[in-house]
Amino acid sequence: MSDNETSRLIKGALLLSIAGLISKVFSAVYRIVLQNLTGDIGFYMYQQLYPLLGIAMMLALYGFPSAISSLTATEIEKGKTLSWQGFYRPILLILGSFHILLIAIIYFTAPLLAYLAGDASFIGLYQLTAVLFLVVPVLALFRGIQQGRYEMAPTALSQIGEQFIRVGTIIAGAWLVSRGIFQIYAIGTAAVLASLLGSFSALAILLFFYYKNRYASHAVMQVSPRGETVPWKKYIKTLLLFGIAAAMNHMTLLLMQLADTFTFVPKLIAEGTGEIAAKEMKGVFDRGQPLIQVVTIIGSSIALAIIPAISYQKLKEQRKQVMNHIQTALHIGIFIAIGAVIGLFIIFPEVNQLLYKNTQGTSVLRILIVAIAMSTISIIGASILQSLGMIVRTAVFIGISFIVKVCSNLILIPLFEMYGASIATVVSLSVLLFLVVMELYRKLPNMPLFRSVSWKSLMMASAAMVAYLLIMQGIFSAFVIEIRWLLFIYVLFISASGAVLFLFLLLKTGGLTESQIRILPKSAYLLRIYHGRKQL
């Protein structure tokens, strides 16, 4: 790979990361708006469908495009053109066959899925959701081809465009429900329709860029030369093994929600809880999901900005430099995750009131947000392993954590209701973190991954932040809790100022080394604080 191509690849990876961050923040925000408009029952309705919709999105956005981009890049590097008979058609046949099978499974097992979810009214919605998977092969093909020739803008813009249409459609549907124009179950139909419209808008953006740049590289579709053989075995293995594994590595939190979809309400009803009460409890429990998602994504994105500098080849050639990048990514992730968990734990009553208009479920959700620490650190660790070529293994770890979540739900929900589901999420993500850490130690022996963390600095910064938040909470909370716009200003100020205090003390007490700080964005400003730490 030439230096120019390497530069384009790194810039493209950064562009995709930014688009992913914007998309995930949108996803968290619109679910809060949806709950405000339709209440906990409406939120429950949406969350029962969201995991299946999310799986389709992950396959179309991350999994299969990654596999196709790998195949595309390989063919272009060999100087080949991508023909209809030798490339496009076999990929579409493989992906089309896989998704038709998947659609048939979802469609015909919809009654069983609805039974497992504890609500027969979802049969038609699950069958409608299956239609979304028809678009995935085409979306994945055009994303993968353009990524394979290092054109990341089409994927990034299509992702943002898709999310924008989805968010607008879902909020419009929620508003119509809140006005009584549609019944509450219309939220499910709006969710599926929003995903379909979003997918078609993404496809339109991808096709526009594809035809605009169709003569710019060897990726333009050509007539196949006679006698061209199709490497079916290679295509099937790359697409279905690598593609599904790559998608699973982006589904950690999604799979936790999938487990709750089919265990939470049925187990509560089986233990004697009324159907409406069980659905409301599920809606309250799901309030924690947007917060976990946005904090995990922000925390891991800052650390993952360092990941493109990591690869197995670089580890062999520049071991010291790569080790420093790995340690920095993990340290940043640990600091952000633990700081966020402690801060949110303290101010969660105000956050709950601000976002959802009451403090219902605060104690349960305080347990659930502990999962932020496990999810952030495990996602960073898994991303490091993937950069070192261990994509399938990390997918297996995520699959194991999903099984642990299902089993834990089945045992703990009957015993502790919502508390049981929160504990099950923390347990399953702890198992994932343990597996990832053990694999990191196996892959990187003799590297002080966690022993090198400045735990003393972390404790000092955390203690100072806790004291500050408790003092501010004691003085102001009672005055602002009932006035939403004042509460918004208060939560925004206390969150930002608490985070600044935490970061300031981390740097002042030597939580990061100078070489680690230099890797980070805006390092010049951070180094000024670091260099003045001896004066503390």
Automatic annotation (TrEMBL):
Presence of the UniProt keyword DNA repair in the record: no
Keywords: Cell membrane, Membrane, Transmembrane, Transmembrane helix
Primary localisation category: membrane
Chain ranges passing through the membrane: 12-30, 50-71, 92-117, 123-142, 163-185, 191-211, 239-259, 291-310, 330-348, 363-385, 392-412, 418-437, 458-481, 487-507
Top-rank lineage group of the source organism: Bacteria
Any single Pfam family the record assigns to this protein: Polysacc_synt
InterPro entries in the cross-refs: PG_synth_SpoVB (IPR024923), Poly_Biosynth_Transport (IPR050833), Polysacc_synth (IPR002797)
The keyword Membrane is assigned to this record: yes
Location(s), subcellular: Cell membrane
Its membrane topology: Multi-pass membrane protein
Protein's name according to its UniProt entry: Oligosaccharide flippase family protein
Organism: Oceanobacillus locisalsi
